[in-house]
Amino acid sequence: xxxxxxxxxxALSACLCVSMLAGCGSNNKTETSKSDSKxxxxxxxxxMVIGDTTFNSSNEENSTNPHDACSDESDVNPHRGYxxxxxxxxxxxxxxxxxxxxxxIQPWLAKEWENxxxxxxxxxxxxxxxxxxxxxxxxxxxxQCLEHLIENHDRAKNDLKIASIDADGQVLTIHTSEPKPAxxxxxxxxxxxxxxxxxxxENGIVAGTGPYIAxxxxxDDHLTLVKNENxxxxxxxxxxLTIRTITDGNTLANALLSGEVQAAYGMAxxxxxxxxxxxxxxxxxxxxxxxxxxxxxxxxxxxxxxAVRKAIAxxxxxxxxxxxxxxxxxxxxxxxxxxxxxxxxxxVTTESYDPEGAKKVLEEAGWKDSDGDGIxxxxxxKLVVKWLTYPSRQELPLLAESAQATLxxxxxxxxxxxxxxxxxxxxxxxxxxxxxxxxxxxxxxxPEYWFTVFATSDATKNSGKxxxxxxxxxxxxxxxxxxxxxxxxxxxxxxxxxxxDNAFVFCSFLKMSMISRSNVTGYESHACDYYQVxxxxxxx
Length: 540
Known about the structure:
The protein is an alpha+beta fold. Helices cover 23% and strands 22% of the residues. The strands form 5 sheets. Strands 1, 8, 9, 10, 11, 12, 13, 16, 17, 18 and 19 form an 11-stranded mixed sheet that branches. Strands 4-5-7-6 form a 4-stranded antiparallel sheet, covered by helices on one side.
């Protein structure tokens, strides 16, 4: 085995990978007095406000465990649900490794690592890093953090397979219970933010190592940050930063135009021309954030019928959705992952837009329009698809409308439920047939993540109850395979398996744009959609 200091994993060489929200209150164990400090050589604080449509609890990728008693809120605690997205995106926490825009892992809190053998990883930490609590970040603190993570976060426990951890100064040695080729990739996931566990988790706020400290937040309203005066990797430029939830596109556009906010994330596409002038600037990058629908395999759902699933896949006009409704700010999806990588969607085949072919599939399966109302029926049951989605990702209501129009042409009625209550509705298998969502497909730079979250029989977010013995067998092989080429081959086979079953329909990938006023610097898009707030963020 190659005992390289570089993780064995996949790099998405082309367009790759994406939000979250915080809970409420402040952590008294975190140093917050710095918020009163003045900017250097100035009598006033340097402040900034970012408007963010995705900074809310309704986003599927932002939601906490739906069984959590506090699932109606999100916070910045990476050890809870998907709250790590806010922690890493807004500069509160950092991970052992970070991702380039080609999704290659790079040193961050870890300065080097070695794959000693199939079950052992030796990680050397950066020197002179402190948590915002004032505690030194040494191997013992990281060990404590990771042990708390796997005790409290089911997805991390299943991903990491950590058996034990040894700490010696700045050297961390991780022993896994089974071979884990993508371990370092997974440790770059937002849940891998290294936090000071001893500082506590009061009100969902944690002490990280990032350039900013969370001091106040209110679910679906705002998150307040102050600069970390003791940040290890450069001096943050902003004294106080506010992330404001603004879900209405017109409101966000007006706020940016008026200067109420100085930067915006999630701007409505129709507003883009307003900002195409010298007063504003765009940062755009292709990502692996995908808009896709998962099928419900519950026996009560019409999607339990393979012919219906196939017809839906053939009846969605992906090209028109991208060019017309997204105004070119995306590109059609073929498989789970974008084209261009060793496991990209150009390696698989799927159903193309074919309305006449879809009609034939339904006819042969016994779905006919016997009463002439344009909607097919079978055994006295109308072919009505309950389409569940949520409004906080502007693309999803547009996708629902597009699918509704094109599927009607083949005799399928689409009943749209676009609601912020999506996660609770998703728990009832009788309440939906297709669930359309947004997700960053390869947020760790490795393909395994997506399958174990959405598609395998025991996947954490397999709400459609899809089950494939072939897929599970391939995942068992992938989980232990260190060879990059073989991992890619397995990932392609796994994609083809779910596409052959029409278990999911992948519609488009996102070209992500962040817009700021011309006097803002350091506000840049990244393929992974994580590092929105950094020490380089500034306003002049």
